[in-house]
């Protein structure tokens, strides 16, 4: 056993010995409502500040928008590489309380599960990276580089006051980054599809409903025709670039062999998905509607650009001879990935195997996250965190306690490997 392996074994034992602290910390994070919207992270940020201060970890605090706080904290030194561990403090709204079997802000541990809003997305992962950093400091582990925590708000609405705000101002840099977003136990996500959200507005001519379709021009009817064309984006054949084909294939393997309920979704990795999310139009049933607005969420695979999709949409809709406009909003990104052989990917994947004794490999996700921002700034990044995936953003959100502990072990050992790599 070499010195690094011995050190990692020591740190795994330390996580075991301090696991009650980790679980209590995670529970306390869940008990602090940090719902976005509105996105107020004042209370949870102050709680994390106190937790870091207990072992003398210094930090900088930035209020990017009203009551939206970023924390940047580091241990180690500037002599070597820098690894960033990132997590967001905000959570999605709880929805109808009557549909929960427990208090969404209880942070209760029951039958091996941590319960509450944010348990999987992503306060368990957030707790893990903060706990691992604090434990390294507490044990006086000498690092040949720097481990930085980037604790951010405003992720759940795709806002600009978290990760992009820090990166634009060069307040966070790094040679590699891990985001503790939910993932499967053995398969971090190293790539993601692009996002293309837009609102279609169709304009018509009003008139008395009793004269339709002979009078006026029905904006809703024209919008229905437009929707039919928009949905044909799914039918397009996309040529996947050669350099990402291995990632697509291993991701299909994951969907066949690991998350078997995802088998039927394999096509989404290579297709433009189209979700007609909302429709608003008209004023009364007896008035020919003069407007209709439709919000659409498309996810773009590798091999097609946003500009190409815009041109395709315009050609399809122009051919309908309707009065329309398209306005982009929300998530905007192209498909992006970090190569599996990048040091940060290797460090996480190898230490998942080291901790679990099982084969691990990176896969692609079909959604989007803050990872895209780091890649825009040439910071290699992947995502790995504890989660019960079916409960994310739903009622009765939860995560297994054993998964929280496992991920903390991976975080602390991967930091050692990455920072000691030449």
TrEMBL record:
GO terms for molecular function: metal ion binding; succinyl-diaminopimelate desuccinylase activity. The keyword Zinc applies. Residues 190-321 form the Peptidase M20 dimerisation domain. Gene3D superfamilies: 3.30.70.360, Zn peptidases. It holds the Pfam family Peptidase_M20. GO terms for biological process: lysine biosynthetic process via diaminopimelate. It catalyses: N-succinyl-(2S,6S)-2,6-diaminopimelate + H2O = (2S,6S)-2,6-diaminopimelate + succinate. Its EC number is 3.5.1.18. It comes from the Bacteria. Keywords: Cobalt, Hydrolase, Metal-binding, Zinc. Its cofactor is Zn(2+); Co(2+). SUPFAM superfamilies: Bacterial exopeptidase dimerisation domain, Zn-dependent exopeptidases. Pathway: Amino-acid biosynthesis; L-lysine biosynthesis via DAP pathway; LL-2,6-diaminopimelate from (S)-tetrahydrodipicolinate (succinylase route): step 3/3. Belongs to the peptidase M20A family. This is Probable succinyl-diaminopimelate desuccinylase. It comes from Lysinibacillus macroides.
């Amino acid at each position: 056993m070499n010195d690094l392996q011995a050190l990692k074994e020591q740190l795994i034992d330390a996580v075991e010995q301090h696991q009650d602290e980790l679980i209590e910390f995670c529970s306390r994070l869940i008990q602090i409502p940090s719902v976005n919207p509105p996105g107020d992270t004042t209370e949870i940020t102050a709680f994390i500040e106190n937790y870091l201060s207990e072992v003398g970890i210094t930090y900088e605090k930035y209020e990017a928008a009203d009551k939206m706080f970023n924390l940047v904290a580091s241990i180690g030194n500037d002599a070597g590489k820098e690894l960033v561990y990132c997590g967001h403090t905000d959570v999605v709204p709880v929805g109808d309380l009557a549909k929960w079997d427990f208090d969404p802000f209880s942070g209760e541990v029951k039958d091996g599960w941590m319960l509450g809003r944010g348990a999987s997305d992503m306060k368990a992962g957030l707790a893990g990276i903060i706990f691992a950093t604090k434990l390294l400091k507490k044990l006086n582990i000498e690092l040949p580089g720097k481990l930085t925590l980037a604790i951010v708000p405003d992720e759940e609405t795709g806002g600009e006051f978290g990760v992009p705000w820090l990166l634009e101002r060069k307040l966070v840099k790094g040679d590699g980054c891990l985001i503790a977003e939910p993932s499967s136990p053995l398969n971090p996500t190293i790539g993601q599809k692009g996002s293309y959200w837009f609102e279609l507005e169709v304009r018509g001519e009003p008139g008395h409903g009793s004269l339709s379709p002979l009078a006026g021009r029905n904006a809703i009817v024209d919008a229905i025709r437009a929707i039919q064309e928009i949905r044909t984006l799914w039918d397009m054949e996309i040529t996947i670039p050669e350099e990402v084909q291995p990632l697509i294939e291993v991701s299909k393997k994951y969907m066949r062999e690991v998350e078997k309920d995802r088998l039927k979704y394999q096509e989404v990795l290579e297709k433009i998905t189209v979700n007609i999310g909302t429709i608003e139009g008209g004023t009364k049933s007896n008035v020919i509607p003069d407007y209709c607005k439709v919000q659409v969420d498309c996810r773009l695979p590798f091999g097609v650009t946003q500009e190409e999709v815009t041109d395709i949409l315009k050609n399809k809709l122009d051919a309908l001879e309707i009065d329309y406009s398209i306005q982009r909003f929300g998530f905007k990104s192209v498909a992006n990935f970090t190569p599996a052989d990048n040091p940060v990917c290797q460090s996480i994947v190898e230490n998942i195997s080291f901790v679990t004794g099982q084969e691990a490999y990176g896969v692609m996700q079909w959604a989007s996250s803050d990872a895209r921002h780091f890649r825009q700034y040439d910071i290699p990044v992947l995502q790995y965190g504890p989660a019960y995936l079916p409960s994310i953003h739903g009622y009765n959100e939860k995560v297994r306690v054993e998964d929280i502990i496992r991920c903390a072990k991976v975080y602390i050992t991967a930091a050692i490997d990455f920072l000691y790599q030449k």
